Amino acid sequence: MTDPRSTTAPATKATANPGAANAAAGRPQPGKYNLRSGNHIVPREGIAGQALAVVIGIMAFLACLAAGALAIVNDTSSRWQSDISREVTIQIRPSDEAGMEDAIREAGRLVLKFDGIARVTALDDAATARLLEPWLGSGLDLSELPVPRLLTVTVKDGANPDFAEIRRALVDKVPGASLDDHRAWVDRLTRMA
After folding, report:
1. What is the pLDDT of residues 74-87, one digit of tens each?
2. Phi/psi of residue 140, each to 5°?
3. What is the predicted pLDDT for the residue at 87?
4. Number of domains the chain is built from
5. Is residue 2 part of a domain?
6. Residue numbers of the domain that contains 34
7. What does residue 39 show for φ and ψ, rounded to 5 degrees?
8. Are 97 and 184 part of one and the same domain?
9. Which of 21, 43, 131, 174 is 20 to 30 A removed from 7 (C-alpha atoms)?
10. Could you give the CA distance from residue 176 to residue 184 in angstroms, rounded to a whole number?
């Protein structure tokens, strides 16, 4: 006869494969992810679960608004950068060497000789007075003040004129002339965007 204590019971399917027993009992299997667990961090029922869903919805809405605002700012910045880079400004300060009108005509003729320049437009006294009005007030008589005159230079689309050469030619030929290619503004817009 055999000793009942020394014999082992034959292995059943449940003891041989504990995962199968857990699965049969509806319990999660060890070592596997259970996506249907009833243990939620925040219960679905109740005020906490509903509040969390509302907060997630609000955050998603705000993220969409931020992405839309970023796209609008980026597009506007690109347009501003394009507009600024298509125009340069020539300032002619009053000088004893030449009359203002002669200096304006000479600067316009000189700049139009360079490749990539579409047109040169001089701001008249009325436009200059409008520019100065916020600082000096209305009804300003420019003949009493040594006010510089401005010329706007429009660059052809796709052209890249040599502004350094234009600047040198203006300084050599037109007394009191300076050229502003708005590079500081373009760089600032690029950094902001």
Report:
1. 888 788 777 777 88
2. -85, 130
3. 86
4. 2
5. no
6. 10-39
7. -95, 90
8. yes
9. 21
10. 21
